[in-house]
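Note to self: the last two entries modelled the partners one at a time, which told us nothing about the interface. This time every component goes in together.
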Amino acid sequence: MKQGRRSFIKTAGTFGLALPLAGTSFFKRQADQPLGIAVIGLGSYAKNQIGVALENSPEWKLVGIVTGTASKIPEWKKRFPSIKDENVFNYENFDNIVNAKDIDVVYICLPNGLHPEFTIRAAKAGKHVICEKPMANTVEEAEQMLNACNKAGVKLAIGYRCHFEPFNQEVMRYGKEKTFGKINFMQTNFGFKIGDPTQWRLKKKMAGGGPLMDVGIYCVQAARYTLGMEPISVTAQFGPVTDPTRFAEVEESVSWQLTFPEGITVNGFSSYKTNVETMFASCDKGNFEMSPAWSYGPLKGKTPNGEMKLPIVHHQTFQMNGMAPYFRSKDPLPDHFSGVEGLKDMKILMAIYKAAKTGKSVKL
Ligand code: NAD
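The predicted structure of the combined assembly is written out below.
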């Protein structure tokens, strides 16, 4: 079956209807052929998770790489003989990807501060984009990314792997079906002890912020997808700075309190100083919880009915398999893992920072 020639992107109302992009190789991809993908940024996540997914997913074929480090090229080409010489780009000549008809989608796995530039350049080259979380450093950048993809008629997904993962899908179901009654309160915590003090995660320009941007986003996501609601206001507080050299540019830790409709409160905590990864929901008919809740676990959960017994999967492979049909389809991506979702999170993350800085409640 041939793909339709036209693809419309319907995202948020304000972003409108995208124009079909003439001549994009994507629209000619056969349903029985894997989608061609190029990975931008061959760091730890690309190597250890996205690479594994691409080795295991029949839906995708890694045909291109974009790297600023030439020494990584032989290792990647050895691991993926499907990478073609002409599809090996650096950050300067990346725009030539426009000529790579076998690349349908680019996966951006660069530091957060580079997500907007490379998403916009990929869109201009007529490539669909999967961008790692967080989508950007600011709300304005996230809007620019959505607008650029819309204008070019390409799709923009965010690497929200938990939407494809069985434990997290199960808590979404608990929230939706009120399996244990109404959820009244949630506690969401994600932190780890950060290593190398010179890494980009500690630089404001590259990271946008500290643990909130990196892992706190999972807490915000979990609150939204478990409750199936949007928060209406937030208060927040930065934690103490115990290491002023390491945490000169970004927060060491932050706590926040999101108010949702129906009087529901969700507390959150994120830190680069301590290892924690839990979500807890207090409901009318008992509690459910997960710990670890979002990382490579293996995830574990408990409900009033006992231990959650669900398959332990490779998250990134599930994400890639789960996203593939949406990239083949002429329909827009569902909002829950698209740039629309990324933008919603960006607004909440920025509101948390504003609330922590001002000491005042911020309306959402
Ligand atoms: P990393 O530091 O291991 O890799 C970053 C890559 O970007 C490296 O190859 C580096 O060479 C390259 N790079 C290009 N320009 C750079 C610059 N100016 N400064 C620093 N590096 C530069 O980081 P990572 O852990 O792979 O994270 C990459 C992205 O993936 C981030 O957006 C991160 O939030 C996201 N991530 C997502 C998950 C997830 O579970 N979905 C997990 C880890 C990381």
